[in-house]
Specification:
CATH topology of the largest domain in chain A: Butyryl-CoA Dehydrogenase, subunit A, domain 3
Shape of chain A: globular
Largest sheet of chain A: 4 strands, antiparallel
Number of strands of chain A: 11
Strand content of chain A: 15-25%
Strand order of the largest sheet of chain A: 4-5-9-8
CATH architecture of the largest domain in chain A: Up-down Bundle
CATH superfamily of the largest domain in chain A: Butyryl-CoA Dehydrogenase, subunit A, domain 3
Oligomer: homotetramer
Largest interface: C-D, 45 and 44 residues
């Protein structure tokens, strides 16, 4: 699909309808477990999205999608995020969506055939094994301690990874490991000997299938042709994946925040206290007004950054700006919605409570705000010094 | 005990030691369930507190306590709150602590013997049935729709209550019901026919034994001598309970926020990124500094309000000020601690994640900030108009 | 000019150069008085802009401009605002720019000849007499107490206006007055008998030529052909002027905030404390990063609202959103810049101190944030109720 | 005076009355110039305070005061600050008040006779010459570049100082200069050859007599007996002066913020918009409520820190906490008051506009918030590491 506005509008409308009519009813399904939707629920949802023709629409046509630009993707993913289950159903949830993007850009055609195709269709899930426990690679990737060493035609990987979203139940993982001074990404089936799930973290969020795992890598042997793309390109590939993945997070959670706002607005327009509708209390109405502004600003920030990516730029600073501004704005929205709903807001009677928890985690995932501010400060410094030399 | 500083200091030190040595190890006990610590866990904790001589120390001596002033209570409860389980162990958790206070002030001696004594010792728990579902009494108590009607020597209560903390598993409840234009409080064993637990709400917090229940009251018959104190005094009694109960919430959660701060500070002083300790990054250090200020201001606010209560005043506006300022400050503290811990902060690997969830709920319990701001605005108006007439 | 990107880019570059090379040096001119630049300074600046071909470029070609869209205007005005004197020089300062827009839309051709043409060229200034002292029309226009009454072929206006920007020294004013249940706008030379400047307010800002006046209207007689457009259309015309005028305020002050940011960034990259550049302290660097995000979000919000206006919509809610979000974001930027500069920041040694004061006032001019939040809350309510009926 | 509560209450009441009846009328006196009240105005005010027996009441009795504790001083100074002219009248304005405190603690009796006595009575003013222009001592005193060298029995001082409050018109100054690795404070009449006022800074604030000067020190020769206290003790003496001076700033500006709040509350209770009193709009009422909380928290923070000082501690971290928390809270109060007053708020029609400007500067004076947060972060780190070793 070109980004023809009419076609895009029609796609978004389909997503809207799919989410409201098909997906939202699943939100009360008991298969929504503490560590995310169960595999059975996920498969049922993906099946429904296949029926609706809405699986991974951002992908190129040869992978079954519409070949959307980043900007068009933004409109579609925002609509998908209106339910936390929407991205699961449409197979555009982290980390799979980012992994698909990366594999499409850098994997060999054999790797695409073997790993990307089943991933794109939702037949399997995947994981991205980069973050390490304290002392290893977290916000600072240079601290990576997982190592891959050549052994004949194979590579043997040893290390420990944490916060591996979807690690449990994934078909394969992309493992980032030090190879000398550089780093390399490896593709490995998750049942490769040496890969073991240590435990699933109990986290504040609960929307990601498989939850977040701590994973041990003990002598994981992978053949050289499972190096993703080329050896020693791990840090560069991480950049390829980084900015778009950050931004799709913003898109999806934007939808969730809008949902929370709609629920809060509806509540405020139907419940009364002290003699008038909640919405007629300025204390509540002003919160709704602030939501409106935060949502609009977030939407504009996402679209702007998507345009940057569509222009071919790496979008590293722009996606940092979007990540911080959007995650913090959406958190304010979610927090206000909880507050407007009162007791109901802190209960699971509406999805607002979950949205609040998810977006709290989002402020940390893909780099906490502080790391992005730090790198943006460096950018200001760099440009200021350059201007002085002008 | 008088508020003799030395005795108080020694009591607080005992609480400190009890929490750190005895209570905190229980935090990883699997009997900490989604809806709060199980009854078996609660009993074990209370038993431990009895051994340590630390059950409900604020109570008068005839109830086994030290007869603490509000100000001394503040010091003790802050120490107790250092673990979410501390108040459970020491039997000073909401709603029991507030109920004890109320019963001590207004119950007949027969009622005190029957209801207060077993409550004070931790043999049973209690509930406070005031809040109603949408359309009934929430922030605006005038909307109460539960009704009690005289029938011979009995009263028959009909209505529906929600967010009844500890309702499940409580020995008795204090039921607030409309009696004509006024309201009356009734004491009722929770197994009285007609009282039924509809469901337990799934809420963002998980520290309160029994969780928060929705309760149906269908023709609940209680004899007239189970009217708490006097008939038609319900709204006045609610005021008696209100301000101190708000303030003890502040005290307990202050301790939890301090705990979160200590954990975050420790983390920041042992983990490094980008070549130095987290604490040496101003982005982190400034958050710790802000915690210091928020904790100190909250402590001062609590002590000030406690002094007001000790002076004999009802403390309604002062406790509103304390409730808003303290709950919002503690939430900022908890939020910063989550952020400092990064991925660990949103996982249950430390208690910080729970503290964050609990204090989010605290911003709503006992009146959301907006209701208090509304009543404080009225106070400013009242005093301003009075000064103009001056 | 069409909004051809290349032509626009070239125009903006001309403005940039004009501001930096010609206008900024005037900032230390002693004719910048407490109540704004003197008329002599203003004329000299406008003369310079004529030389550079940069007077009121947004106007249609028959008025000497390039016929810019709102979106193109945004780019030009942001560049112009880089100095508080820029808009004065380019004759695009409030209230003149908004008055030109209004006259172009609704004045008769005779009125345009007599009032608009000399205004457009910068030969004269103008005023907009709407706001009234307490008890009259402020944020709530329905409270207007100035009255115009028919007397033969003339109208006689009586009332009192306040905060009339540029009232002193203006060639003519647009006077809003009640005419029965409606309101009408009148064009009047400022030397019309009965119009008298009561006093010039001492205000926190100081960029507007003529300052802000309190003006008495005592039996001001104007012929019927000086009714702007048609009688009784005052409130509608106010809407015509309103949204674009709000937005051009945002544009101009955006430029000033960017200027403050550039000065602060430069300062932070050249001064050291505690052993390193200020910019290398995260406490400072994070402020610069936040500026970056606030400026980008404000720019996006302005462009979005400009697009709405270009689409032909009235843009009332959109300009409310932009006004609140942008004025508050720019104030945060200015406040951070003051803080980064330390003692220098609160002194007039740089323009940052003025920018801070100006933008503080901006948060009130054209409706304080609270009035806009109030109307946005109404919008949410309206749309929510409509969706429920949907 | 002991801190006898009754006596203190009576003193505070006298101050209240003096400020309201005598001082406030002077606020519209034209001798309030851009760089502060003129010397003639100051003398008239001090004369009035002498008549009322209210000059520098915090000083010991031998200097004409009541020997107030820091805690009692807090109550008195808060009352005095209710007008920006109050501290000028009562001779407790910075930097004189801090200088008196320092001289009382460390000056020789000859120095006290010659410099302190006329200062204490308000016969002369003084200056404190520590801060230096960029590149010298600002927030980081170790960067001091002013040097004093021994020459026979004299010392010769060379350097440049900036932001020297009250420098113009002062009788004497306390000059801080490097003496080898240490620093020494010198007492010098301001007419000593070599001391020259370069210029008076134009600053956002305007309450300090003499404004803020840039001062050149070119071969300023002072005899050895004008070393304040002992040589090489400059940094230690700076600490002696530091914490109490910071705190008295908080006290005085607290009073100003309360004044602003009272004016805003009065305005909100007498003006209407959209059909009701401003105070009845929650958007306004909530701001007043927030003021109430910010004022109370600031008051508590001041009193707590005063108690720390009264206990004999240096109070360095405590006064940092108070300085940051109070200055930021009072700024929020002042900002809200401006907003509530609308157009009037940004005009000099009330004192609120000045209070806003003064408190903006206060967030920088005596160390910007960032420097205090930085040192508080160090304190958290220090104590955390100590606890780990514990």
């Amino acid at each position: 699909m070109s980004d023809n506005n009419e076609q895009l509008g029609s796609l978004v409308a389909s997503v809207d309808a799919f989410i409201r009519d098909v997906v939202i009813p699943y939100e009360s399904d008991p298969r929504n477990e503490d560590h995310g939707p169960s595999e059975s629920l996920r498969r049922e949802l993906v099946e429904a999205a296949h029926t609706a023709g809405l699986v991974a629409p951002q992908l190129p046509e040869w992978l079954g999608g519409h070949g959307l630009s980043h900007r068009a993707t933004a409109a579609v993913f925002r609509a998908a995020g209106y339910s936390p289950l929407g991205p699961v159903a449409m197979n555009i949830m982290a980390p799979d969506e980012g992994n698909m993007h990366l594999l499409e850009k850098v994997a060999t055609s054999e790797q695409q055939e073997r790993f990307l195709k089943p991933l794109a269709s939702g037949a399997i899930r995947s994981a991205f094994l980069m973050t390490e426990p304290d002392g290893g690679a977290g916000s600072d990737p240079s601290m990576m301690s997982t190592i891959a060493e050549r052994d004949g035609d194979d590579w043997v990987i040893t290390g420990r990874k944490t916060f591996i979203t979807g690690g449990k139940g994934a078909g394969f993982g992309i493992i980032m490991a030090k190879t000398g001074e550089s780093a390399t990404m490896f593709l490995a089936d998750m049942d490769t000997p040496g890969i073991s799930i240590d435990r699933i973290l109990d986290t504040i969020d609960s929307s990601m299938p498989g939850g977040h795992a701590v994973i041990n890598l003990e002598g994981v042997r992978v053949p050289a042709d499972q190096i993703l793309g080329a050896a020693d390109e791990g840090f560069r590939y991480a950049q390829v994946r980084l900015a778009p993945a950050r931004l799709t997070h913003c898109m999806r959670w934007w939808g969730a925040a809008e949902r929370a706002h709609d629920i809060a607005a509806d509540y405020a327009c139907t419940r009364s206290a002290f003699g008038k509708l909640l919405a007629d209390h300025e204390g509540v109405g002003f919160m709704l007004a602030d939501n409106l502004m935060d949502l609009k600003q977030s939407e504009l920030m996402i679209d702007w950054c998507a345009d940057v990516l569509d222009s071919g730029a790496t979008g590293t600073p722009e996606s940092s700006m979007a990540k911080v501004a959007v995650s913090e704005a959406l958190f304010r929205v979610a927090d206000r919605c909880v507050q407007i709903l009162g007791g109901t807001g802190v209960s699971r009677d509406t999805v607002v409570e979950q949205v609040f928890r998810e977006i709290r985690a989002f402020r940390i995932y893909d780099g906490p705000s502080e790391v992005h501010r730090w790198s943006l400060a460096k950018k200001v410094k760099r440009e200021t010094l350059k201007a002085r030399q002008g």
